[in-house]
Design brief:
Elements: H1 2-42, E1 45-48, E2 64-73, E3 78-88, E4 96-102, E5 113-116, E6 121-123, E7 130-134, E8 138-141, E9 143-144, E10 153-156, E11 158-164, E12 167-168, E13 172-177, E14 182-188, E15 194-200, H2 202-227, H3 235-256, H4 266-299
Parallel strand pairs: 2-13
Antiparallel strand pairs: 1-13, 2-3, 3-7, 3-8, 4-5, 4-11, 6-7, 9-10, 10-15, 11-12, 14-15
Length: 300
């Protein structure tokens, strides 16, 4: 009797505490995390990326070199970017060059992009103590992470140098993301290499995975529904089923943003390829059932 009363008390407490915890703790936390990730994915994001040999924090005594990432070019496995140098006017009394190379072996090391006091667009208004120099947009090769969509990341490892009057000079380094739908993260490893990552937002990641799970579940239900049919489907019903499912696949691709440019991903095979094979097998079973049913009717 006491055990039953204790069980009922725990049951009542669980029915009250669990919904309250979900309402006031879990859901708000998830909402904040996803909303922040989505916000940073949509906005322009700038991060300080100084490594060993540079000032630890932004220092106005040195010029600042900013790498701006404008656009992803998936057809070319590249990024459209530009370089900017800015700082107090007194820092640019001598000729300077800021050079950017990529560490991956996608192109010869001699190929580089630069911004200089001679060849760049200069912004220096009268009355302002700050000057800025900006290069034209250029294309730099990128590398992709091993993980496929939607966990795929764009990787870039820049090598930057700043020369003033042909002498190496200290500088601040920044990376600015002007691309919508990606989050920017910067890491400096033990070898003093700067790694730039552009990842999809958590909101997009969660949305794609939930939609994928629902689509697989619907495909399983449809497949077992076809198999469990005792008499099998008619030819017209089979044609309508296949046509409707193919249209649903195309709509699903558009819904989660699967790109044909990057090739077929593991997610596409799992979510679309495997269910399509399952539906195809179910239709064959249904077709065979329909033929056997007709044979039985004619034999009677």
């Amino acid at each position: 009797m006491k055990i039953k009363v204790l069980y009922n008390i725990l049951k009542i407490i669980s029915l009250i505490i669990i919904p309250l915890a979900l309402t006031f703790i879990v859901i708000p936390y998830i909402d904040i995390v996803l909303t922040n990730g989505d916000l940073y994915g949509r906005m322009i994001e700038t991060k300080h990326a100084n490594h060993l040999g540079m000032p630890k924090e932004h220092n106005r005594k040195f010029p600042t070199l900013r790498l701006i990432l404008h656009k992803i070019l998936p057809e070319e496995n590249a990024l459209e970017a530009s370089l900017m140098v800015y700082g107090d006017q007194d820092l640019f009394t001598k000729e300077f060059r800021a050079i950017l190379r990529t560490e991956y072996n996608n192109q010869p090391f001699a190929i580089h992009n630069e911004v200089s006091s001679k060849d760049s667009m200069t912004y220096n208004d009268i009355g302002l103590s700050e000057a800025a120099f900006k290069s034209n947009r250029f294309i730099i090769p990128i590398t992709h992470s091993v993980s496929g969509f939607p966990n795929d990341k764009i990787l870039l490892r820049p090598i930057v140098n700043y020369y003033s009057d042909w002498v190496t000079y200290d500088f601040n380094f920044e990376v600015q993301k002007a691309i919508s739908g990606r989050n920017l993260s910067i890491e400096i490893d033990s070898g003093n290499h700067i790694s730039i990552e552009l990842s999809r937002t958590q909101l997009e990641n969660v949305f794609v995975k939930i939609c994928s799970g629902i689509f697989i579940l619907i495909s399983i239900i449809v497949g077992f529904g076809i198999i469990s049919s005792k008499k099998g489907l008619s030819k017209l019903e089979e044609l309508l089923m296949v046509a409707g499912y193919i249209i649903a696949i195309e709509g699903f691709r558009e819904l989660i943003g699967l790109s044909r440019v990057s090739g077929i991903s593991a997610l596409e095979i799992i979510v679309i390829g495997v269910p399509l094979v399952f539906i195809f097998i179910a239709l064959i079973i249904s077709f065979i059932k329909g033929i056997l049913e007709k044979i039985n009717i004619n034999s009677r």
